Every structure is written in structure tokens, then in C-alpha cells.
Amino acid sequence: MQDRKSLEGLFQLVHVLKRQLHDNIEQLDIDVAPMHVRVLKIINKKSPCTAIDIANFLNRDKAQVTRLLNTLITQGLIVKEPNPEDKRSQCLRLTEESQLIMGKINQIDKQIYQQMTQGLADDELTLFQTVAQKMVANLNTK
User: Fold this and answer.
1) What are phi and psi of 98, to 5 degrees?
2) Residues 6+ apart with CB under 8 A from 39
3) Are 40 and 46 in contact (CB under 8 A)?
């Protein structure tokens, strides 16, 4: 019985978190889908960043990532530049427009994190992070 309650609790947390993020990003009135936001976050965080980096991070095949990147390029949110370390690949960079968007999204992330962790002690957050990382590792084991 405890297993089902824990799993249900995780489902509820993930659902509410995704819903909050989606609703808040939708209020920004930008034409960027949630998966595209994830890609922008990866590029913003990892520099230099290649399509392979994104595919590995999202656990998606290169064709799926290429479609995501092409949409972002068409929207003027990212650009490709030569990779100085590997001539066979290209680095991805945010444009000024997407940097502004990322600033707004980072603010949303901070607000939601503050709301979500309200009333929790540092040791509770540390324990949660440890448990969540172990669960992710367990699920990623093939």
C-alpha cells in the first residue's frame, strides 16, 4: 500500500509542477512549446552545446532533436556556429531574443521553486534531492 501512495505522490508532484510551469510560461505570451523551453534551458546551461549533447540529455534520437532545433532556428531563438573543437559538429547559441525569454523563464522557475519549497527545512530538501537522484538512477538502469 505504501508503494502505491509514494508513486501517486510523485505523479501528483510532477503533474502539478509541469502544470504550473506550463501555465506561467503561457502567460508570457511567447510561441514556445514546453519541449522547446527544455532545449533552450539546456543550451543556456551548457556551453558549448551541440545537438548530440541535447539528444543525450533528453534521451531522444538525433532526428527528434534536429526537428526541435530547426523549429528554434526558424523562430530565431538559436543559431548554429562552427564547433572549434570538432569540425563535424556545430555549437548552438541562444539569440538575444531567447536570452530575454530565458531571463523570464528563470524568474518563473525561481518563483515556483520558492512556492514549492515553502515551509521545508534545508535538510528535508537535501534528503528529497538525494532520494530523487537515486530514483532517477534506478529508472535509468537498463
Assistant:
1) -70, -25
2) 54, 58, 65, 68, 69, 72
3) no
Residue 74 has phi, psi (to 5 degrees) of -60, -35
State yes or no: pLDDT of 128 exceeds 90. Answer: yes
Q: Give the whole-angstrom CA distance, residue 9 versus residue 81.
A: 43
3-class secondary structure, 138: helix
Average pLDDT (76-80) is: 95
What span, in angstroms and rounded, lies between the C-alpha atoms of 66 and 58?
12
pLDDT at 1: 44
Identify the bridge partners of residue 93 per DSSP, sorted by sequence position. Answer: 79
Set of cell numbers at residue 93: 547559441
Please tell me the distance from the alpha carbon of residue 112 to that of residue 11, in angstroms, as a whole number: 17
Angle at 22 between CA 140 and CA 117, to 5 degrees: 70
Overall pTM surpassing 0.90 (yes/no): no
